[in-house]
């Protein structure tokens, strides 16, 4: 591999991480290709290619010499971080050491047991969901929960084993902090959703189920995602069964979406969402690619960027003032008899439902609240697995007033637990909270943004996010970045105010 | 990486090579993606990713322990290869050792000087070709020629330094053997081409320059390539500036082509050609992927498969008896007033020209003859670089009766020399010779094939090639495989007979 002159331990550690990133990003290409372009029969060999490269990446990340460099550097930079933003050096050392420590603390046997349980768990989950058979899945889930507890013990935690699991996705966030914000948000949302359900005014969401030719959907989605700031010279948009955003290099960010000819929302809001992720990735400092200052802060912050563009921009009235006439041109057969106000209300229709991924901007948070409270209790052993389906249904009744008739539409609906992703769900809700707080801070700094949106101007907001959020990489953890940018602690106030104000108008509350 | 139990030295060497193949095939994906899907600005980082993986692959191929295993195995299997086809073990050891020895004989400094000269040479060539400025390119070419001579000396040869360069692409073939067959073929082709030029019958090739909508071209090319045997469950077809075929795994073979709405031949015959390569790759023993018995024999044999399907099948009268009515359906606007016989003659139009890649089935070989004779003399130092442009023009006059007005259309037309690919050109001509000989042997074994083609049946020929050629991998070198399959030594007889018979009918000679 090409080597630059390496003078200091810092240079050596940086260079090591950058070389790892070359392999990590190649691994990302293997995975992107698997989901988008790979011929059907190539799957088995692709798994071997991925394993070979993932093994190398893991070995480099837990390399002993690398760890010694980081320990040496950490002892030199430890005092720099008091009462001021971390320097580039301190942030780099902290970030690298954090990743090294976490990966090194998990013994190789536990790591492979976790990987195996996730692989077997996902296979078992697919079948169990098809057969609506939670009992068949339960032993796999029990193994996964037990191993995640072992992982938490190996990683270490202060108050709650779940802390160690959140830490993988949202460093700096604690179980008690998430519990508190989830509780206060839920208590405020449940009556809001109930009053929406009671409203006599019902937006006509059926207009979104008319005929939307796929070619036009693709052109429109690309036009809008480019307009909000996703750079197609440094990225792509392809089709997959499950949409995602991945990074294959500092100038190679790839989005995917799925098109449903009979449903406008899937591709359009899916692309807005993934483009939000992509704009974040494209806004990270490219010179620091593969290093903490060039990496995303946390999954919650990542999700804040996707939710901000999808919901706070893409579902705003002013956005559709600009784009509805354009949408009418693309989909003249389906939208010529629709008013802009009707379309705006349709894309903001609130309806308590069983399925998370189809949920609207308001009820989505309640789906997450349910999952968070259940998985927290599973990990702390307060909830036996045998009681999980009943607990799930009880919470759906309590928070959303709906009841699933099957476990397939209930406790078996998401892939996350079968894949061992405990601690991941809260980042979806944190993303919504951060997004509202960032948006408020952007309007504090830039003035109101809606009049710009109504003329198709998104650059001020995108540039502000580049400067305040994206450019920081991992200089701060999520909670500290939020405070640094907004001046406020994490809170449900802004999200709730936004939802109340929007839905009071739409539903005449 | 996942390891199977390794009992013997042979197992260990095989396993080493298979793990290398996981990385090599990942490298192939990086390169395929670069040409087909990669965003514009990702090029610089992609070069770093490719370098990182290529360095690993090279290190594994020249690994000292691996070399010791191979030396040990070679001493055990040396006596097995007398007077009978090599066993699986012997062929595997010979093939692995051959690659190891060749790569190990080139000192690292020479290897990196060669890589640098090729990279700089290609950049200089692009500019020189644009500016029609051979003098600007000459010093780069001189460096490359000097380094290729050094490489030949390092690798070793018996009679001619060019032997060592051919050996990289066509093991078992010698300079004198190529010289001899090129001479005899050229002597027979020059008068044939001249008599064609003198014929008063001129096929109307302009019908191929009508309007052929690209979507229909793509569907038609996929239909035909699938019909001749390319398996799209194990492969793809994409668009690139320069068509190629690459292998990303044992069940992942990818073709590319380019579409010209105003020229039928580009995509159609390009896809037939690449599909021929692909059918060969897909016919190699998948259980031996990454090992000699699962690898293509030589570039000449590879080219024989592409030329066979492109020319001997795709430009045959019986092929168009079946496919012309179908082509008329796809391109009704452009072909409804064309007769099948006119179309057949158009795709077989012979016209001496300056540009190799646009040449027909007959004159193509003369373009190669010219390049071979010049590069052979450059490497043996019988031709000073200063005299190259004049020598080029003289040979074009002599063999094809045409003269280029510029070096851009003359000595600067091909990328090969700028990339250090000396010894590569003859494999194009060898491919045509092998193809004719294989086709004759197939009809010897299967009976005449044309009546099947005229009904759209290609499976007998494809299966025969699978069994006789593809299944052998590298058990034999090219010349020995040809002899094994056809019972005959390499000769120009079959190709010449094919061309004479075809063109006598078309041109009423």
Assign a percent range to the helix content of chain A.
55-70%
CATH architecture annotation name of the largest domain in chain A:
Orthogonal Bundle
Quaternary state of the chains: homodimer
Number of distinct beta strands of chain A: 3
Number of domains of chain A: 2
β-strand percent of chain A reads under 5%
Give the low-pLDDT segments of chain A.
none
Provide an overview of this structure.
Two copies of one chain form a homodimer. In chain A, helix 5 runs antiparallel to helix 6 and helix 9 runs parallel beside helix 10. Chain A is mainly α and 509 residues long. The model of chain A has no long low-confidence stretch (mean pLDDT 95). Chain A is built from 21 helices and three strands. In chain A, strands 1-3-2 form a three-stranded mixed beta sheet. Chain A is globular, with a radius of gyration of 23 Å. Helices cover 63% and strands 3% of the residues of chain A. Chain A has two domains: 97 residues, no CATH class; 332 residues, Orthogonal Bundle (Neurolysin, domain 3). The N and C termini of chain A lie far apart (64 Å). Chains A and B meet through helix 1 and helix 2 of A and helix 1 and helix 2 of B.
């Amino acid at each position: 591999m090409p080597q630059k002159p390496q003078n200091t331990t810092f240079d050596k550690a940086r260079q090591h991480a950058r070389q790892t990133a070359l392999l990590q990003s190649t691994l990302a290409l293997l995975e992107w290709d698997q989901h988008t372009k790979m011929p059907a029969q190539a799957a088995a060999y692709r798994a071997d290619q991925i394993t070979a490269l993932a093994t190398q990446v893991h070995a480099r990340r837990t390399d002993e010499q690398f760890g010694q460099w980081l320990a040496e550097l950490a002892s030199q930079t430890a005092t720099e971080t008091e009462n001021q933003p971390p320097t580039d050096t301190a942030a780099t050392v902290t970030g690298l050491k954090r990743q090294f420590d976490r990966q090194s603390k998990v013994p190789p046997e536990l790591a492979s047991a976790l990987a195996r349980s996730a692989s077997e768990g996902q296979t078992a989950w697919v079948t169990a969901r098809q057969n609506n058979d939670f009992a068949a899945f339960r032993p796999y889930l029990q193994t996964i929960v037990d191993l995640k507890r072992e992982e938490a013990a190996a990683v270490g935690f202060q108050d709650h084993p779940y802390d160690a699991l959140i830490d993988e996705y949202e460093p700096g966030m604690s179980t008690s902090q998430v519990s508190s914000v989830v509780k206060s948000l839920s208590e405020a949302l449940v009556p809001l959703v109930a009053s929406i359900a009671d409203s006599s005014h019902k937006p006509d969401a059926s207009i979104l189920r008319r005929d939307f030719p796929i070619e036009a959907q693709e052109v429109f989605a690309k036009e809008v995602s480019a307009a909000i700031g996703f750079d197609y010279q440094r990225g792509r948009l392809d089709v997959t069964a499950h949409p995602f955003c991945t990074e294959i290099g500092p100038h190679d960010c790839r989005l995917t979406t799925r098109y449903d000819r009979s449903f406008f929302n899937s591709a359009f809001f899916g692309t807005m969402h993934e483009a939000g992720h992509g704009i974040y990735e494209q806004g990270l400092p490219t010179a620091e690619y593969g290093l903490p200052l060039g990496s995303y802060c946390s999954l919650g912050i990542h999700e804040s960027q996707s939710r901000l563009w999808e919901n706070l921009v893409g579902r705003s009235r002013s956005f559709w003032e600009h784009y509805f006439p354009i949408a009418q041109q693309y989909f003249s057969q389906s939208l010529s008899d629709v008013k802009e106000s009707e379309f705006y209300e349709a894309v903001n229709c609130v309806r308590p439902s069983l399925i998370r991924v189809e949920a609207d901007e308001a009820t989505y948070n309640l789906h997450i609240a349910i999952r968070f409270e259940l998985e927290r209790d599973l990990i702390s052993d307060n909830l036996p697995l045998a009681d999980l389906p009943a607990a799930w249904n009880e919470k759906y009744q309590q928070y959303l007033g709906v009841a699933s008739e099957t476990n397939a539409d209930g406790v078996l609906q998401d892939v996350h637990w079968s894949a061992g992703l405990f601690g991941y769900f809260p980042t979806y809700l944190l993303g919504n909270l951060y997004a509202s707080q960032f948006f408020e801070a952007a309007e504090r700094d830039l003035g109101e943004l809606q009049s710009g949106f109504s003329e198709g101007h998104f650059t001020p907001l995108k540039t502000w996010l580049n400067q305040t959020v994206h450019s920081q990489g991992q200089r701060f953890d999520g909670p500290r970045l939020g405070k640094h940018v907004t001046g406020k602690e994490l809170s449900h106030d802004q999200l709730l105010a936004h939802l109340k104000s929007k839905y009071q108008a739409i539903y005449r509350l």
